[in-house]
Amino acid sequence: MFEQHIYIERRKTLKTKFKSGLLLFLGNDESPMNYSANTYNFRQDSSFLYYFGLSLPNLVGIIDIDENKEYLFGYEYTLADIVWMGKQPSLNQLANRIGVEFSEPILNLKKFLQKKIKDGVKVHFLPLYRGEQKLKLAELLDENPFKINNKFSKKFVEAVIEQRSVKSSEEIAEIEYALEIAYQMHITAMQMARHGIIERDIVASMEGISRSLGNGFSFHPIVSKNGQTLHNHYHDNQLQQGDLLVCDAGAESYRFYASDITRTIPVGGKFSAIQKDIYEIVLTAQKNAISSIKPGAKYVDVHLVAAKIIAAGLIQLGIMKGNPGEAVKNGAHALFFPHGLGHMMGLDVHDMEGLGEELVGYDKNTQRSNQFGLAYLRFAKELRPGYVLTVEPGIYFIPELIDQWKAKKKLKNFINYDKLESLKIFGGIRIEDNVLVTETGCKVLGRPIPKEARDVEAIVNG
Ligand code: GLY
Ligand code: MN
User: Fold this and answer.
1) Domain segments of the chain as ranges
2) What's the CATH number for 4-165?
């Protein structure tokens, strides 16, 4: 946890956005894996963490705007629980830790809420992403659990997004720490990327580092020689000399902040000529995208900077053809770069995605494109100082996508389909760093993890 005053100040700022109503923060509960007592690792809801800081199940935070009171509802542990779990803090002690005046047993919450509703008080709540939380809140508010998510408060979501989007110095320090863990993880992955090793051996070593230095991975890692599959979580391939290993993994700090880094590693320590050519295009796209990040720039335009460099590079290699600007305008680059440049990052690796990608990444000045590729951009709107984003362009040769486009002769004026047959076994390359938008430009966060081709080769070679 951060110091108490940070949570008090965060709630105080949020309160200024509301004139009346009740703000309800539903903390997460334990989630069973295969039977009730055998649960997944507990992960608190990130908005609850942001305002109420406590990483324990069965908690609900309430801010009563009209009466200017704050409450923590929760479970008071019994002696029977303590026999199994050890000594637990009382609810009152928990509330004190975060500067909340009132604490109440969770069994009283329904009565409390129903009285407020009867008195005409609006209960604002955030969108829910877990089934059991929908059931719980529906029961508390007498709503249909299948429809409750239609009733979230947009005003509340917008206020939370506005606040959580701008990272404070203590949040940046946490992200930098998560990046230090990622540094250790990725250097280890490079050192291990030798002929004969199984992908899962690298995953296991990275996970060990992430667990010993923090809370483990910030998301299921992608460690695959089939990097053309963007979110490939299959880790049972044996690596061969000459494979390209896409390694996309990040850690969670003790205070639950994420890092998210990708490096693409030549197994055995030497990029082939074509691998190096494609690698240099992705690296140039990534560096130029980073150089274009500054307050006021729209992230969709930064995405297009990367897309144009990718198109120009592939044209130079004879894989694409025509004019790069025209190719990008028509969406031809998306055959090779079908995803967005990046996303916000903070307490969630895709920060606040649980509150709705549209509300995080788009606004009235920036509408989502419906063009294949560009439509997947998670974050497109104008950048502001304090935002933290990933910058992660890539080039992939996805056989199924190539075959489909080729059969339709899609955008054939921009794509040399004949050149693509031999590249269907290429795989993919992605390079990702995490960037803070500053007052004048941006700063790449964390200790630099080697990304020049020769530097990555040198580490693989020991
Ligand atoms: N690093 C995986 C992702 O951003 O989706
Ligand atoms: Mn990412």
Assistant:
1) 4-165, 169-461
2) 3.40.350.10
Distance 431 CA to ligand 2 centre (A): 10
Residues 6+ apart with CB under 8 A from 384: 165, 166, 295, 437
Atom number in ligand 1 closest to CA 250: 1
Q: Which CATH code fits 169-461?
A: 3.90.230.10
Instruction: Write the DSSP symbol of residue 439.
Output: S
CA of residue 178 to ligand 2 center, whole Å: 14
Q: How big is the chain, counted in residues?
A: 462
How far apart are the CA of 447 and the centre of ligand 1, in A?
A: 20
248 lines ligand 1 (CB under 6 A): yes
Residue 187 near residue 204 (C-beta atoms within 8 A): no
**462 residues of the chain, pLDDT tens digit each:** 999 999 999 999 999 999 999 999 999 999 999 999 999 999 999 999 999 999 999 999 999 999 999 999 999 999 999 999 999 999 999 999 999 999 999 999 999 999 999 999 999 999 999 999 999 999 999 999 999 999 999 999 999 999 999 999 999 999 999 999 999 999 999 999 999 999 999 999 999 999 999 999 999 999 999 999 999 999 999 999 999 999 999 999 999 999 999 999 999 999 999 999 999 999 999 999 999 999 999 999 999 999 999 999 999 999 999 999 999 999 999 999 999 999 999 999 999 999 999 999 999 999 999 999 999 999 999 999 999 999 999 999 999 999 999 999 999 999 999 999 999 999 999 999 999 999 999 999 999 999 999 999 999 999
Is the entire prediction scored with pTM above 0.70?
Answer: yes
Kindly state if the Cβ of 348 falls inside 6 Å of ligand 1.
no
Using an 8 Å Cβ cutoff, are 57 and 85 in contact? no
* Ligand 1 neighbour 260 (Cβ under 6 A): yes
